[in-house]
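Ligand-bound model needed. adenosine-5'-diphosphate.
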Amino acid sequence: MEKSVATPGDAKHAVQLRNVRKEFGSTIGVNDLTLDIRQGEFLTLLGPSGCGKSTLLGMIAGFITPTAGRIVVDGTDLTHVEPYKRDIGLVFQNYALFPHVNVFDNVAFGLKMRKLPKAEIEERTRRGIAMMKLEGLEKRRVRQLSGGQQQRVAVARAVVIQPKVLLLDEPLSALDKNLRAQMQVELSELHRSTGLTTIFVTHDQGEALSLSDRIVVMNKGEVQQVAAPIELYKTPANGFVASFIGEINALPDARYSVDGDTATLAIQGVGELKAPRRPEWSFANGTTVRSFLRPEQVVPVEFGSTGPNHFEGVVEAHIYQGAQTITRVMIEGIGLIQTRVNGADIIARQPVGERMVLRFEADDAILLPTGFV
Ligand SMILES: Nc1ncnc2c1ncn2[C@@H]1O[C@H](COP(=O)(O)OP(=O)(O)O)[C@@H](O)[C@H]1O
Ligand SMILES: [Mg+2]
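Prediction:
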């Protein structure tokens, strides 16, 4: 099925993937994937392990040959072009540097391969080293560097060749939390200062949300949704995306009906949720829908409160997270519901094992027809 995510008026496309497919024997790594990557954007491939992210990147870089489909970079069909002729910068999780070679020569590698004049190699390498804050380490062997420094060398090496596209395959996964946060900022700055079209791979949704212009959510070799981070969070296209992006509470199937401006979600044997009708809720009365609520859309209220959208349950756990606390409440007929509140007062106020009341802010609910979940 040919489906294009491009809309008329899009900026020029740096990479165009058309029905790209990769089979490994009977395993499908990437399944007829069609995608346009805009010039200069920071695009993230996000999905669980094994969903085909690395395979897709490998096909763009050229070291994995597609079973079918076309790969066009900067207007040129590269499907059958050798990797070293593609002008694509590549960084992996495990660096792939030359451990016994010094920083300068590692960064200069791609330029020497291209047989550029010596003066230009020196100049570009020096700029790459400065850009990635590696000055003073030029003569150091790579194996004498920290993980973060090694990853900066790998990025510098990929960038100095002035690639048409920069591919980053989980480059931060091996780094500890603080270093990862710092490198995320540096990658953002690098992208802003170079304007390089960047395809970044991660299985970490937080990393994807914070870095990307657009995110491609993948599952089982297929694109689930392509959207900007906020759009993905607020209007996931299906249950997989809703559950993969951020934390979410999935409610049991409910019968949808509308009366005037009020929508009602009736959960059999449990009760009703009421919400002002939203334009995107275009279901016919009687449709079975699945609803999703983010933890911040579930609000603890005073015990004994009743009314629409109020449900009582038993506190199962508090997860203290510093500025916020996640509280898990088991509600009969609905299941385990997570709420997120500021501070830690709730831990003493609502001890584990006691009953508490939650109000569901259903006006912000994400509703999907069950057939799509
Ligand atoms: N060389 C290979 N031989 C056989 N199967 C492979 C090979 N490379 C990847 N696969 C399979 O293809 C699917 C996608 O893998 P991959 O692209 O590495 O996923 P991801 O990078 O998203 O974790 C997985 O099922 C994986 O086992
Ligand atoms: Mg991978």
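The two ends are 21 Å apart (CA to CA).
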